[in-house]
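[#protein-structures] MJ: dropping Membrane protein YqaA with SNARE-associated domain here for a structure pass
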Amino acid sequence: MQIFGPIYDKTMRWSKHKFATYWLMLVSFIEAIFFPIPPDVMLIPMSMSKPKMAVRYAVYTTIASAIGGIIGYTLGYFAFDWIKGFIVDWGMQANFDRMVVWFETWGIAVIFLAGFSPIPYKIFTICAGVMQMAFFPFVITSAISRFARFIIVAKLSAWGGEKYAEKIHRSIEVIGWGSVVLAAIAYMLYTFLK
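AK: finished. structure tokens for Membrane protein YqaA with SNARE-associated domain:
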């Protein structure tokens, strides 16, 4: 069943659209607050299709993500009672509880690790607000960690460029279905070992 090829083709077309940079920034901004899809989904193909713009894309993504992180922090700080229902409804309570323990144990270092964690960034931003972490250290650390992640992703994608885009296109179904199988195995192991 060919599912991932058409998605890949559409994503690559979107990455070349004249408003792609604005969409990248919007996705990055809302991902730090509530959106489930990381900005890498747009950053990678955009950096592949325009390698000379990769660093600029990483900077734009970082700025938008940092601003979104500030909104997430503010929601956690001032409106946690209002948003805690969403955390439960979206199945993020376990991740949130884990973040509280991490913040209590490691403090600001957690924000630096958040930039590279598979746990959604929004959990970190909201939890930082709930824990009333110092605001300016949160913003600075958040911006540094997000930029470090996005610059690595953008530069690696640019390094591969169009030549790897074609190779990925030829193997996208295997990569996509392989990822689904690995995710299913990881989930089953997680639930079995829990």
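MJ: nice. Residues 3-161 form one domain.
AK: one more thing. The two ends are 33 Å apart (CA to CA).
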